[in-house]
Amino acid sequence: MAATKYAQSIKNDSREYLTTALLQLLQTNDLNDIKISQLVKRAGVSRMAFYRNFDTLDDVLRDYFESKIGHLFDDVIKHVSAADKLSRLDHFLSAFEDTILLSIQRHYEYIIQQIFFDNMNRLYQTNSRVQDVPAAKRRYWIGFMSAGVYNIWREWLLGGKQDSVDDLHQLLGDLQEATFQALGS
What we know:
The protein has helices at 5-25, 36-43, 47-53, 57-79, 85-88, 90-105, 109-125, 128-131, 135-158, 165-183. The protein has ten helices and no strands.
């Protein structure tokens, strides 16, 4: 039976309360130290409301960050020329700098990283040069480049942003081009 608008509204509110409460708890607690009972109490919802919406705390974060990160990537995928896509991801970096640093500190970086990888896959699937790479190699190349891009940015943030963003983009572009050449593309 289809949910009424009111029931759907309550479900959406519960999701929002749970997400907000979890993000608040993560300001002072590691993800592994947060209990569902603690979360539902802070959110002001029942334990059942949690389980109607999510299976784990990871699911709460994944749900929240998938849409936020996905929207940033959508903008780059749809509105930026192929040549500028990689360098325009600095919007992701600037929007998520504090989130990335907190995720490292509070031990949920693997969630942000996986969502980033999934979106890098979407981004690279729109690149005609990537499409020229044989399918078997393409999957590995996208994984390699996604991990490389993320880890370069990660190290840059953790290192206090010693290099300019332009230098970072130049490095990423050079690495991407070198790997294309290594594949014969």
